[in-house]
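Morning. Coffee machine broken again, so started the prediction first thing and wrote up yesterday's gels while waiting. Chain of 331 residues, entered below exactly as on the submission form.
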Amino acid sequence: MHQFNEHHAAFDGFSPFYFQVIGPRLRNREVDRKAAVKKTLWTLSLTPLLALICIFLSPFDWQTEVIGIWASTLFFIPLYVAYTIIYTQRSISTVTKQSIIGGFCRFKKWTYLHDKRLEKSAHNSHGLMNFVDLGFAPKYNSATIEGHVTGKINGSYFQFFRATFSRAEETVYEFCPWKYRFKGQFVSILFPQKFQAQTVVIPDKGLFNWKKRRGMKRVRLVDPVFEKMFEVYGTDQVEARYLLAPDFMQRLVDLEHAFKGKSIRFGFTENQLLIAIETRLKLGVGSMFKQLDDPKRTQNVLDALSAIYDVVDGVTTKQERILVNAKSTAA
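Came back before lunch.
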């Protein structure tokens, strides 16, 4: 029997639970996965025919404007491929995500909420505006929430979900990336006690650094490695340095890696820790060209959830200060 790397003590005993509950569900859907992949490959086999159609129907003169013909063909073919993969595998991808993430929720007694598209009247739900107000996400006209999980970790309420913000008035399809304003993973953790001040951490982008907010001053980090990686602003220099010890900063970087993301930004405000990570990863899905019960598919989710636990531990448990060197995963 495969033994998962459970990382955190909170997931002790997960391996036997997986083989009793989650694994059988995934194997029962293997026939559906193979059918979806077969449909995908058959549809993709029509790509050469589509390319010829694009060439013959192109508005350009094929004798004199060869570049225009090939440009239009190269524009439509990737869209066709993306559309094919997404829409021939959408159903089995959704079931896989529900089986894996739902299984974790059953193991931890959390709540798994179904995906939803938010109407304008619901834009203040899920705490999305808190992320926008801190500058972690852009203003948007529509949004989609996926993989929404809520529960408690060591007495602190938390939620995480994947959100796609769009410029369009209505949520756009997956193959229209030019409509997106932000796509990523969001985590909010509600602690019993309030923080005394507000602290915001964003990636250091050199000349394109974030504009300082009213009442917030630049905070210099103790460790030079993280000082190069991040820009920190806060209303209380002492609390900011206390919260952002190197050990805790490393936990946030590890969380970013677990979600296979980039440009993590996070902040402490009131009694919340808000985290936003830019990523295209759909937690719990992975490639449909591999078996559903491939252990790596579930291990990726376990790594991400364990990283969230580590972050909560970093706030609630006093940690010894560590030095981060060039060989650290944060470097």
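The CA atoms of residues 164 and 203 lie 20 Å apart. Going to sketch it on the whiteboard this afternoon.
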